[in-house]
Design goal:
It is a single chain. This protein is of the alpha+beta class and 185 residues long. Strand 1 and strand 2 form a beta hairpin. The protein is elongated, with a radius of gyration of 19 Å. The protein starts with a strand and ends with a strand.
């Protein structure tokens, strides 16, 4: 059954409203606009399911209402990074926007297919073993000298999205925290 969800910054500020036909959509980073990605790269995000088990037409109406209520940033009426008024599933995008999105999704699907080997169990096991060789087990807050036993513990206590924190600590995004791996030999 369709769902309505929102994405919030760690401080609780809602920055995106969405719908999906499956719950998994609320947690997906694919098919999002550049403003959504910029916000998530800077702050991370949390997911809240606002409404579930409603029919699709009702979900579209709720999405439209919430987007209007919170206001779109691009129109100067709020903080939402949504690029449409909702309720259409992207149908109020221009033909150019739809073509760009189609190209991006085609490229994404090709890349996903090319790298599908990374999902194999053997690959995951090899990566787990290789990470043990690095000696990375714990995380330190260099400002407070607090030690966290795992990335999960640090993310939970600091209310930072786990994936975003992982990318920051592993230098895949700018690290906006005072956290770093403790290398133990």
């Amino acid at each position: 059954m369709p769902i309505v969800y929102n994405h919030t910054k760690p401080n609780g500020e809602i920055f995106y409203i969405g719908i999906g036909v499956v719950k998994k959509r609320a947690y997906s980073v694919h098919g999002r606009n550049k403003h959504w990605h910029n916000t998530v790269n800077k702050y991370g995000y949390n997911v809240k399911i606002v409404c579930n088990d409603v029919d699709y037409e009702t979900a579209k109406q709720i999405e439209t209402y919430l987007i209007k209520y919170y206001g779109r940033k691009d129109l100067g009426f709020g903080n939402l990074v949504n690029m449409t008024d909702g309720g259409e599933g992207g149908t109020n995008m221009s033909k150019e926007e739809k073509n760009k999105r189609s190209i991006r999704m085609t490229e994404y699907n090709k890349i996903k297919k090319d790298y599908s080997f990374t999902q194999k169990k053997e690959y995951k096991e090899k990566m787990a073993i290789s990470s043990l060789d690095k000696g990375c087990k714990r995380i330190e807050n260099t400002l407070t000298n607090k030690i966290y036993n795992s990335l999960k513990d640090a993310a939970k206590e600091l209310n930072i999205n786990y994936s975003s924190l992982s990318m920051m600590i592993n230098n895949k995004r700018p690290n906006k925290t005072n956290l770093k791996w403790i290398l133990e030999n």
